[in-house]
Amino acid sequence: MSARVQIIDVAPRDGLQNEKTLLSTADKVELIRRLLAAGITKVETTSFVHPRLVPAMADAEAVMASLEPLPGVSYIGLALNERGVERAIAAGCDEVNAVVVAAEGFGHHNQGMTPEESVAVWTRIAARAHEAGVVPSLVISVAFGCPFDGEVPTRRVAALAAAAAAAHPARLTLADTIGVAGPTDVQERIRAVRDAVGDGVELGVHFHNTRNTGLANAYAALEEGVRVFDASLGGVGGCPFAPDATGNIPTEDLVYMLHRMGVETGIDLELLADAARWLETRLGHPIPGLYAKAGPFPR
Ligand code: ZN
């Protein structure tokens, strides 16, 4: 397969937000620098949420202030509301990532909004980002299943995607927030969402590896033509609503699979594995990712 994919590393936000160990601001910045050194060009650096709700992201402004703008590099900040997008713009984010929630239960617990309300908030966030010259992107969370409501109908996800696409996201990412999908779910949802939004919107995917289906799902998405993948260095992270959940698919394991398939990523896998081993020492527990343990082949 000759293709090139873009990998967005979400470890500094989605990963660290759900880790028990709080990393210092200096360590977060070091993590981001190591990702960039390995060839990652898009990093979800932090989240602009209220520090009382997510103490691990209380240093969002300090992290951004420590990063110098680099050509070809996007620092992505997560924002769940209008206060968040203002903070992300002021902090110098290149891209602001907002969330539309696909199910009532998760919306209520995670951000206090119905799916329809989250589309309205996203629409205002996107308008503000466009106005400020910041790239708005969108993730549809629990797009494959909800920890409270169970199954989420594909037509529901497609309808929300169509409504949200009217605000012109640079990218629309389908997230399996709690790691329940299998490859045929991925195939079905990508086709339905692409039919709903047309070819003008780039689709991305965000898989948690809770039930070990993450890489199979990534392969299914690749086969469906998706070229943008979220992943987390070392596979670090979890989900506050799924006690034994692991994080996102490990970036280095995904890169190994893609390189083995002849798919280009622009990433130096050994530098990435070094970064994963470094992160393991900072967190003080074994990381889920396997490549950093197994090493290259052939040696
Ligand atoms: Zn996630």
Can you tell me about this structure?
There is one protein chain. With 299 residues, the chain is an alpha/beta fold. It has a single domain (6-294), classed as Alpha-Beta Barrel (TIM Barrel), CATH 3.20.20.70. The protein is built from 12 helices and 10 strands. It has helices at residues 11-17, 25-37, 60-65, 82-90, 104-111, 115-132, 154-165, 183-197, 214-223, 251-260, 269-283, 291-294, and strands spanning 3-4, 6-9, 42-47, 74-78, 95-101, 135-141, 171-176, 202-207, 228-231, 263-264. Strands 2-3-4-5-6-7-8-9 form an 8-stranded parallel beta barrel, surrounded by 8 helices. A two-stranded parallel sheet has the order 1-10. The chain is globular. The mean pLDDT is 95. Residues 14, 175, 177, 206, 208, 248 line the site of zinc ion.
Q: Would you summarize the structure shown here?
A:
With 299 residues, this protein is an alpha/beta fold.
List strands and helices in order, with pairings.
Blueprint: E1 3-4, E2 6-9, H1 11-17, H2 25-37, E3 42-47, H3 60-65, E4 74-78, H4 82-90, E5 95-101, H5 104-111, H6 115-132, E6 135-141, H7 154-165, E7 171-176, H8 183-197, E8 202-207, H9 214-223, E9 228-231, H10 251-260, E10 263-264, H11 269-283, H12 291-294
Parallel strand pairs: 1-10, 2-3, 2-9, 3-4, 4-5, 5-6, 6-7, 7-8, 8-9
Helix pairs in contact: 2-11, 4-6, 7-8, 8-9, 10-11
Zinc ion binds at residues 14, 175, 177, 206, 208, 248.
Give the neighbour order of strands across the main sheet.
Answer: 2-3-4-5-6-7-8-9
The CATH architecture designation is: Alpha-Beta Barrel
Helical percentage: 40-55%
The count of β-strands is 10
Number of alpha- plus pi-helical segments: 12
Topology order in helix (H) and strand (E) letters = EEHHEHEHEHHEHEHEHEHEHH
Instruction: State mean pLDDT (0 to 100 scale).
Output: 95
User: What proportion strand?
Assistant: 15-25%
Low-confidence stretches: none
Write down the CATH topology.
TIM Barrel
Question: How many structural domains does the protein architecture include?
Answer: 1
Using only C-alpha atoms, the radius of gyration works out to: 17 Å
